[in-house]
Amino acid sequence: MPSPSRPSDHPSDHFRPHEQDGRPGRVVRRGIRRAALAGLLLALLGPVAPNPSWAAPAGASQPPAGPGSLGAPRGPASAVAAQGPPVAPRLTRLPIPHVPADKAGAVSASGDRVTAATTRVGIPFDVAGVTFTGAAPAGMRIELRTRTTHGWGAWLPVDVDSEDGPDRGSREARRQTAGSAAVTAVGSDGIDVRVSTRGGVVPPDLTLSVVDGGSAPSDATLAPQVPADSPSVDGSAPATAAASLATATASVSAPAIVSRSAWGADERLMPCQPDPLAGFKAAVVHHTVNVNTYTSAEAPALMRSIFAFHTQSRGWCDIGYNFLVDRFGRIYEGRKGGLSGFTQGAQAGGFNQETLGVSVIGDFTSVPFPSAVRTAVARVVAWQADRSAFDPASSVTLTSAGSTRYEAGVRVTKPRVMGHRDLSLTSCPGDAAYPQVPGIRSAAATQWRAGQYAGRPGRYTPVAARRFVDTRSGLGAPRAPLAAGGTITIRPSGLPSDVTAVTLNLTTTAATRTTSVAVFPAGLAPRSSSVLNTGPGRTTAAAVTVGVGAGGAITLRNGGGNVHVIADLAGYYSTGSSSGLVGSFRRVLDTRSGLGAPAQRVEPSRPLTVTVPNLPAGTRAVNLNLTVTRTQGSGYLTAYAGGSARPSTSNLNFVKGQNVANLATVPVGPGGTVTIHTTAPTDVVADVAGVFVAGSGSRFTPVSPRRVLDTRYGWGTRYGSLGGGRSLAVSVAGVPGSASGVAMSLSATGATLPTALTVYATGSPRPVTSNVNVTPGQAISGLAVSGIRSSSVSVSSTSGSVAVIGDLMGYYGG
């Protein structure tokens, strides 16, 4: 999207001129301001500093999409319609002069001598703050008081740097100006500031900024709206385009939210674009301090003032908080993109890459959050927790990037919903509000649990593979490629009424761009997940096991471009089925070495029938991870029960010289036999990943597909690509400790060398099997069925380095 149009490129055009009351273009919001200006015409105002320079954001409002999409959808920047033009705040910058030692008579509350001070009256403003150049001098303390018609208020200590703001060393931090927190002071027309330091040193460019948020006709009638569930579109891996990783809501509905356009955000004030994230791991509760007396109509002006101070005085990319809540319980969209995506805030310095910030507008040092505020904060936290797939009642380990409480690199375990003081040396969110955080956490967790998809445990019934969707021919869907954001909702025929999940093989072809396909229970909006990644010139297949919605229906969704979709049913889970999964992980076929069959390639004219050894009595089907290697041409592979007719379906597709792996759940024929057919000569490797045995074994519980691992963002594990010969442990959130196995869509991208990924139970020996094979320049996905121990699995790679992404589809046992 191009930058918003504007009458001039000069930065001063983005602020309202300093106008007298009653003149055209000036709307006075408060009678106090009229009285104050009339009575203080002779007050010394001091010079108004030029507006700070800024660079209008160029190009798209989010980083452009690129290759390597892995089910990281993004939606529109705002899902709520605009309610009028943006309102340009008026910012005034005033120097804070040094107080010579021989003239100083005041001391701060800490007893240090005041080294710089200023008093200004006759300037109506809503927000104030202090900035300076360089590091804060030792023991620096900033205190201020504001004046309204009731007179001067009490002195208020103001946090200096590092309590909120960008993470140290980040792109946003490198361009920021040092300073204080924003102090809300709606209805004020005077301010007194004093600065003290232990050594009497005054930092350079010590400046007071006051911001008048202006007014708009809609301020008095502003009402929040519920953002529509935005369609998922594929994003891009950070290595290629910093990735616009956004997602639609899942099963917890979005609360009513006042959008940026509705509260009058002037997007031209943004000097840069905040970084997108894959999701949040926890939520941090804040307050903005100072004033609790603002009216409902004045709250939008406070939003605009905080926005202007953060971007124009502090130099941040955007308003620091992801969401804000006024004292009446209205929720406001903070950082751009928060309605449809995940955007890194500047709210908890040192932990912004992992946390969501929700700030309540007001001072809750001596008074608690009102009931409406507690409800609103819990609602937005529950919604965001659902989109990010974390339980608000649980704990999480976070890694500090450097805060006032924790040095960089320190790992801390905290509740998923916490106060700002839990991460930094600050009193935020106030002494009276902080004891309310556990209640907010509990309320958010209750809402989160109520909104989770509740799949019923079931056992498996294999079927003769059959095709039920083919957009090329119009089978089960319109005869047309699936467009970007397009969905197909289908119910495979012949399923029982108690069906809980289905296993299918999904194939895509004729993609017009790099894209991902998500599959999820019908009736749910997708989270950030995918089961298949493909691109132009590729025919790609991936196995899928997914829960069903009403009537046994599932929904397929395409991320970007146009693509044809083919789906083949392999079996289903139901409460009345009798076959459970028995863990068994071993290699049973390798035609390169002669394991399980002669040491020769499988030829199109000579299907290979393999006897799977050591199967328990009553085995009805096996999970086979099939890999083709040393392929001699382009073609596909089909696996089916020995002694049965070959179905008109496929399990994986390949081109000459390519290594491709995919899981196939295959019924077994007499004597535990499976037949493998290929349309081009190739070597085949088969690894057993569990067998389904009648009358025993574990049941499968489907979940709403959710991301549990992304090494690109340190999601579920450490940050950074997985190196060859190494493994990483992944804590699979939402899986009970008693579970015996998981079904996970495993994706790989950004490989530096051809490599194979293997998933296995943490603490167990690494097997010689593989789940996904990937080459440089390729993004590939496949279903991995693995054992699990204490809710943890491990992922290993054979060579080079590679980014690994995992989406949980469900678990066995438990």
From TrEMBL:
Task: Tell me one Pfam family matched here.
Answer: Amidase_2
Q: Where is the composition biased (Basic and acidic residues)?
A: 7-24, 165-175
Bias regions of kind Low complexity — which residues? 70-79
Region named Disordered: 1-27, 55-83, 159-182
The record, for SMART domains, names: Ami_2 (SM00644), PGRP (SM00701)
Give start and end of each N-acetylmuramoyl-L-alanine amidase domain.
Answer: 269-430
Peptidoglycan recognition protein family domain: residues covered: 255-403
Family matches, as InterPro entries: Amidase/PGRP_sf (IPR036505), Amidase_domain (IPR002502), PGRP (IPR015510), PGRP_domain_met/bac (IPR006619)
Family the UniProt entry places it in: Belongs to the N-acetylmuramoyl-L-alanine amidase 2 family.
Please identify the protein, giving its name as recorded: N-acetylmuramoyl-L-alanine amidase
